[in-house]
Amino acid sequence: MNALTSHNVATRELLLTSDRAQFQSLVDLDNIDSVLRGLLTIEEMREAGSFFTGQELAERALSRLSAITSSSIVLDPTCGAGNLLIEASKKLGVEPTLSATLKVWGQVLWGFDIHPHFIEAAKLRLTIAALNQGVEQDCDLEEAFELLPHILMRDALTVSQIELEKVTHVLMNPPFVIMPSPRKDYWKDGKVNTAGVVLDMYLRILPKGCNISAILPDVLRSGSRYTEFRKFVASSFKAKAEIWGRFNRKTDVDVFLLSGVTSASKNEILWHSLNSDTESISDYFDVRIGPLVAYRDPEEGQEYPYFYPKICPKWERISEVIEKRKFSGTALLPPFIVIKRTSSPSDRHRASATLISLKEPVVVENHMIVVTPKDGKIGTCKKLMRVLQSHKTNSFLNERIRLRHLTVGVIKDIPFSEVR
Ligand SMILES: C[S@@+](CC[C@H](N)C(=O)[O-])C[C@H]1O[C@@H](n2cnc3c(N)ncnc32)[C@H](O)[C@@H]1O
């Protein structure tokens, strides 16, 4: 991963010419994302988890921290090309010369990354950020780099508690790539999001009272796989969760900000601002994933009417057989509603539903969620169709789950009352 090598070389040359007119674009937090996109394919960026925080989100993340002064230590454990550190440096002001400025910044700003070219870019850009504020260039680049000793190539996941005992603030936008579970504490087998593993580890080793502002993928806030993660976070972090939305225009992943102070006491984190006291779908319906996995389940056993997303038009009622398929697993007796699992906050309706009202057992594919009324009545299904179409349900789902698919848990929680 030598992505930024050529960019770093060009930046060094520019520094030698002292062409200050060009400096602004080099420290522009939005620009570095475009630079990286020009050098790497989207697959390579995903693999490295190298999506750099833009200006607006960096400002928001910083605004959630307590004051940063020359006696603070601000760490970004996965700093990339230093965007969050550059934003933090703006809180520190400058001294008359580059060396005096970096002497202060170098003690406050700490950053780790596993890629040396990102570390080089972070140091170059912090040097430029200082020059950009009009300080006198009284030292060469080598000396400037030596004045930033805590920005270094490190694996964030191998750092120890003692190394972090003086850290006062943490800013992070850890990689969102999927990694094998650490398989300790509450982490079960399988694959998990690296961002969760990084936050988990830092909550365990940072000193109490440390300020953290973390940019995290929405799956950690709303995904059913991360319930235990959320419980752990609440037990060690007095924090507030805030939905941000899409990471940036080019990156189709929704993020939220989690910010607060590390604390040993049990805390309540409001992962979403919805009232859990109201009645919900689970009070009146059974909710499950369609039992048939098309690519896996052999076409044997009894033949049933068969439903999958393509043949289920939104908001319509189907009372006749369209297709049939053999299946030896569980068949389900209508009436019920099927909801397509694929769903995005940009869709007009998040829960796209169809009423199935055949009078015989049918099979449903696993790309659909099946919602069966406990009273067995078509009227209750119709009520649910209206609820799912409503603006209120859309707002609920957009607040609750920003992922590109719906879960059984979130459908169960959709507010629904019998009296409508
Ligand atoms: C999403 S980017 C964020 C960079 C920066 N914090 C920002 O907001 O612009 C995540 C960064 O984590 C780095 N990274 C991945 N695994 C790491 C690890 N184990 N230790 C340290 N850095 C890591 C990647 O190289 C990448 O630069």
TrEMBL record:
InterPro entries: DNA_methylase_A-5 (IPR003356), N4_N6_ade-DNA_methylase (IPR050953), SAM-dependent_MTases_sf (IPR029063)
A molecular function (GO) term: site-specific DNA-methyltransferase (adenine-specific) activity
Example of a GO biological process term: methylation
Keyword NAD appears in the UniProt entry: no
Residues in DNA methylase adenine-specific domain copies: 43-179
Enzyme Commission no: 2.1.1.72
UniProt enzyme class: transferase
Pfam families: N6_Mtase (PF02384)
Reaction(s) catalysed (UniProt annotation): a 2'-deoxyadenosine in DNA + S-adenosyl-L-methionine = an N(6)-methyl-2'-deoxyadenosine in DNA + S-adenosyl-L-homocysteine + H(+)
Keyword list, A-Z: Methyltransferase, Transferase
Keyword Transferase: yes
Entry's family note: Belongs to the N(4)/N(6)-methyltransferase family.
Protein name per UniProt: site-specific DNA-methyltransferase (adenine-specific)
Organism: Pseudoalteromonas fuliginea
